[in-house]
């Protein structure tokens, strides 16, 4: 991951283009550390974006067969930990998405308070197909329970136009216009100090979801047979 810090603006760029920026354990820990460092530095704006063809393909399954079920559960817990840090950071947050995005990668976009995507962006959250309740509550809070239910029940792919219609993203902007998007976000973030932003985020967010989301994630991930469920899901996806 690349971290760029300029004028109280921190840009975190997922930089595993050969893996479509899938979230390995190491990348998740690097993101957690970077978010904490940005808070300590009292950054105004935290930007998430991806290098290469897409923002993020979600959980990195490449070595899951060699890991214990306990290791896999911990990895999912650490992703939820990252999402909660981003949900409650006093920094303003901006996701810049493009390409094909899946699962936990979509959760990373959803948790940011401002979300912009290019016209080629696609999104899919298939976690419930292998019994994982990650990001469900946040998506429902963002786009409404009924619309979230429809998307997740069928593990539907939705494009940028549909995402904008649902309110999942706030606008469709091509990457060559992103510097202007960032400049505007920086100006808006700078209108409030960190304490005021913290109050704003606390009072307009859903703090009651913190324990609920973590509890749902832990219960779903720790149910026996997570490896078998992942294997069945991946086999069905390739058949």
Tell me what the structure shows:
This protein is α/β, with parallel strands linked by helices. The protein has a single domain (2-176), classed as 2-enoyl-CoA Hydratase, Chain A, domain 1 (Alpha-Beta Complex), CATH 3.90.226. The protein has helices spanning 25-40, 69-88, 103-111, 136-143, 145-153, 160-166, 178-189, 194-204, 209-222, 226-238; strands at residues 2-6, 9-14, 45-50, 92-97, 100-102, 114-117, 122-124, 158-159, 171-172. The strands form two sheets. A six-stranded mixed β-sheet has the order 1-2-3-4-6-9, sandwiched between helices.
Between the first and last Cα atoms, what is the distance in angstroms?
33 Å
The secondary-structure element order is EEHEHEEHEEHHEHEHHHH
Q: What integer is the average pLDDT? A: 94
CATH homology group: 2-enoyl-CoA Hydratase, Chain A, domain 1
User: Under the CATH scheme, which class?
Assistant: Alpha Beta
**Measured on Cα atoms, how large is the radius of gyration?**
17 Å
Percent of residues in β-strands: 15-25%
CATH topology: 2-enoyl-CoA Hydratase, Chain A, domain 1
Instruction: Domain count, please report it.
Output: 1
Going across the major beta sheet, what is the strand order? 1-2-3-4-6-9
Number of helices: 10
CATH architectural type: Alpha-Beta Complex
- By helix and strand content, what is the structural category? alpha/beta
Total DSSP E strands: 9
The low-pLDDT segments are: none
Helix content: 40-55%
